[in-house]
Amino acid sequence: MTTLSNARVSEMFAAFFGYQPVTTLKAPGRVNLIGEHTDYNGGFVLPAAINYNTYIAIAPRDDRQLKLVAYNFDNQSCTVDLDAVQAHNAEESWPNYVRGVVQELRKNGFRLAGGDLYIAGNVPAGAGLSSSASLEIALIRALLALSGEVIDPTKAALVGQAAENNFVGCNCGIMDQLISARGQENAALLIDCQDLSVRPVSMPADWEILIVHSGVKRGLVDSEYNQRRQQCEAAAAFFGQTSLRAVELDQLLAAEGKLDDLSFRRARHVLTENARTLAAAAALAAGDLSALIEVMLASHASMRDDFNITTPAIDTLVDILVEAGAGQAGARMTGGGFGGCVVAVAPAAVIPRLMAAVETNYQAQTGCIPTLIRAKASAGAF
Ligand code: GLA
């Protein structure tokens, strides 16, 4: 992948459209350190924005059209009439995100103006690193820069989420869009998804984040994801609640045998994951590596055994990292599940050992090809 930057994407715009853009904007992908499938249950998450972005170079047009070009799709282009009712087209991929964002911005009263846009990104797609959310947030910034409107970052996240829920068809929570909009350099954000409050949690300066793509293509993602969400809602309904956030762990444990086993396990994952996320934020802030490792491993086991969203290759990858870390590295699957990436956190001095172990053992044991990504906790789009 070509190295991308604002300057590089401006050049790509100029090469395609034959004139200079007025500006280039970007929004990052994210890695979730812990707190998986808790966001749509009103729970806690602890993601960090990463130094991989979607970039959009823009220039105004004097009509009511958007002309968009996507570098990552062989310079495929799409035109959107800002005055038309936007319709989802199942034959298309990325243009649906554009139409969804246009529709949701309009619904929320934002003025839009015509423009030429060149989009290029280096957030790996289908990896659980939120390339979709980074596209949505970058589009919101780009479209509002064209019309000269201002948006609050949390509102931008809600608009991006609504585009995905109402238009693209994934019933995702708020985590990915919120961290892409509001991430902070060298920190993870502890987000309370019930009231959308955020608290930056700095990482000790000598710790690093290593992301390993498992090479496993994520399959059936949207249908499995939406099904997990329904199962959580059904479990909450058993307790007469609309969200699992309103259910206490003791209450759940007392209902074992009365609540069906599947709902029980789904809810146990969510409630224990909320507690682990708070513990992880405290461990990160205190520089307590053993406490962080303990909750990361417990989180992975809970995703594997109670929420059933890991795959055998991902489980093997976590085992390889944990063994190589020998008590100095935490690791767990990150993101929605069914493939994608594993995240490890360890002192910088331990990272080369983890990388070597993945390179030596992972493909040999699973037949899958790993990609190693040393990521930095980075600033969000706003
Ligand atoms: C996807 C969704 C998020 C979140 C995670 C799982 O990334 O977009 O809202 O639910 O899965 O934690």
UniProtKB/TrEMBL annotation:
Residues 96-183 form the GHMP kinase N-terminal domain. It comes from the Bacteria. SUPFAM superfamilies: GHMP Kinase, C-terminal domain (SSF55060), Ribosomal protein S5 domain 2-like (SSF54211). Residues 281-357 form the GHMP kinase C-terminal domain. One of its GO terms (molecular function) is galactokinase activity. It holds the Pfam family GHMP_kinases_C. It is an enzyme of class 2 (transferase). Its EC number is 2.7.1.6. PROSITE patterns: GALACTOKINASE, GHMP_KINASES_ATP. Coiled coil: none annotated. PANTHER family: GALACTOKINASE-RELATED, MEVALONATE KINASE/GALACTOKINASE. This is Galactokinase. It comes from Cellvibrio fontiphilus.
